[in-house]
């Protein structure tokens, strides 16, 4: 696991530690809202839990692009490094 992926997982987990109890609190204290306001508040809070949970799931399942090491030496990861050349082949020094 790369350090960047670990940082993302840590940030998502830390956010969820806040967002889940926040959602629970507001879901149990709706008496001061009218129906439309209560539904709007709960929908927004539910999205604020569902989105980071989905992102956390994606970091765990392994559905991610190849790392830089897997593409080393190429621009596209296909083995064709023509896009990384700074000068055309015909003008290069052929030493």
Q: How do you describe this structure in short?
A:
The chain has 95 residues and is an all-alpha fold. The protein is built from two helices and no strands.
Q: Name the structural class.
A: mainly alpha
Fraction of residues in helices?
A: 40-55%
**Mean pLDDT, nearest integer?**
80
| Element pattern in H and E | HH
Number of strands: 0
Number of helices: 2
- In the predicted model, the low-confidence regions spanning at least 5 consecutive residues are none
**Percent of sequence in beta strands:** under 5%
Instruction: Give the C-alpha Rg.
Output: 24 Å
Query: Major β-sheet, in short?
Result: none
Distance between the termini: 41 Å
What would you call the shape?
elongated
Description:
This protein is mainly α. It has a domain at 1-64. It is 55% helix and 0% strand. It is built from two helices and no strands. It has helices at residues 3-27, 35-61. The chain starts with a helix and ends in a 34-residue tail after the last helix.
How does the SSE layout of this entry go?
Elements: H1 3-27, H2 35-61
Helix pairs in contact: 1-2
Question: Which short descriptors sum up this protein?
Answer:
95 residues, mainly alpha, 2 helices, 55% helix
